[in-house]
Design a protein that fits this description.
Keywords: Antimicrobial, Bacteriolytic enzyme, Glycosidase, Hydrolase. It catalyses: Hydrolysis of (1->4)-beta-linkages between N-acetylmuramic acid and N-acetyl-D-glucosamine residues in a peptidoglycan and between N-acetyl-D-glucosamine residues in chitodextrins. This is Lysozyme. It comes from Novosphingobium pituita. Belongs to the glycosyl hydrolase 24 family. This protein has five helices and two strands. By secondary structure, it is mainly alpha-helical. It has one domain: Lysozyme. The chain has a two-stranded antiparallel ribbon with strand order 1-2. A hairpin with a 2-residue loop joins strand 1 and strand 2. Helix 3 runs antiparallel to helix 4 and helix 4 runs antiparallel to helix 5. It starts with a helix and ends with a helix.
Length: about 70
Amino acid sequence: MRGAAVSLAYNVGWPTYCRSTMRRQINAGQIAASCTSLTWFNKAGGRVVAGLVNRRSREKALCLKDAAA
């Protein structure tokens, strides 16, 4: 989960990450929900990018593994 959060913060910038639903859900202890929220960040230039969809999907799977542990 931490890896996914750091990756997202690095990619979208810390101000965007700090305002994100993912961060609020992590702070509230809703880890599985925060992993799903990660997949919402799949756009570049206002368009959905297949590479980002795939990347966020892999990050979500890792995040959910961590949440289950």
